[in-house]
Amino acid sequence: MLINGNSALDLTDHEIIRIIKNQTDRWNLDNISRTNAYLNYYLQHQDMQWAFLASMVSRNAGWNMCDLEGDLFTDLLSATFRVRLFLTYERANWLIFQDAYPQLLLYHYSTKIGKPLFHLLRNFHVSSFMEEEWMLYWHHSNKLRLMTSLIINEQNVIQRPVIEYGVYREKVFDSILFSLQDWFHFSVVLFPTIRGELYGASVHGFKAPSNRIELGKNLASILFSPEQYDNFLDFALRTEHTGSRYDYERYIPYMSNRKTPMLRLTFPFVEHHRHQYEDWRKTTVVKAKWGREIVKGASSKSLTEWYFSKQNQLEFAHACKKIMFPFLSRQRKR
User: Fold this and answer.
1) Residues whose CB is less than 8 angstroms from the CB of residue 273 and which lie 6 or more positions away in sequence, other chains included
2) Distance between CA atoms of residues 109 and 3, nearest Å
3) Using an 8 Å Cβ cutoff, are 66 and 266 in contact?
4) What local confidence, expressed as pLDDT, does residue 87 receive?
5) 20 to 30 A from 149, CA-CA: which of 90, 96, 118, 321?
6) What is the mean pLDDT of each run of 10 residues along the chain (334 residues)?
7) 112 near 3, Cβ under 8 Å?
């Protein structure tokens, strides 16, 4: 629980560091807790738009995890590859939260105490890039610049520890199966509404941070578009995040059956350890195009028809495999 008002005035730097570490550990248990933590934070600090974006993108990570154990992918992908994909999603999810949530909490305590506390970011292994950006925000309140900076930071935070890291690179990102990501829709992020509509965007060349940063900015533009923002927020407030794709398919006509399980009934908690910390800013040149701020109000294209088409393709592939290779299908579920 966050400390508010006059109570925060009496806290020392050491106490604030301890509280933030405890809160981060408490909410960094799994995809469900992270998604909820981001949304709850946004409801308290709606100037921190990145927190809502992070919550909605985290929902997609949960759905992608649960898809791996749903009706389709248990036949289409081997058990070994599904485990590797789950651990990849989980590791990236964990790393981003471990880095970003202390930043959000430090901003919270800075507003309550009335002075910037961003010099404490180094106690949480946060990049010097973000320390500078938070100070700029404190003085100039440029919400779009801060959201852009947090997108840049999160994608660089996972670049070496996940995208380029040994087993993830060799067994997942360089695999033939991952090269089919566009077909499997691993790199599509969807934002649902309770009216049964789907919006979102996808990324090509997922391994390149520039492409993922551009995706993040496109998603922010869609999420905060004047036409749809209220609808997306309404969905988030009304719909408990279970990790199952049914969380939003239940709003789509003719899709009333649950085809993917709930996350906490499917996957165990994963205990993570941070490897040796390196400030990505010291070895990475921040490209000028990364800093081009988000253009708010860009029109968002409905992906509802695309989603139906993609689901039909996957179900057709699933049916063909069961007919042609029934023994192999049974083996993949093990």
Assistant:
1) none
2) 8
3) yes
4) 94
5) 90
6) 69 95 97 98 97 98 93 85 92 97 98 96 96 98 97 97 87 78 71 94 90 95 94 97 93 78 95 86 95 73 78 67 54 51
7) yes
Q: Which pTM does this prediction carry?
A: 0.91
Nearest to 155 by CA among 232, 198, 219, 241: 219
Tokens describing residue 6:
């006059």
Which two tokens mark 200? 């979102």
Copy the structure tokens of residue 193.
Answer: 């509404």
Composition of the chain by helix, strand, coil, percent to 5:
65, 5, 30
Instruction: Pull the structure tokens for residue 158.
Output: 């996972």
- Please report the pLDDT score of residue 51 as a whole number: 98
- Give CA–CA dist 67/61, Å, rounded: 10
Structure tokens belonging to residue 286:
């921040």
- Whole-angstrom CA distances from 268 to 35, 40, 178, 200, 262 are 17, 24, 24, 29, 12
Tokens of 142: 């440029």
Report the 10 Å Cβ neighbour count for 139. Answer: 9
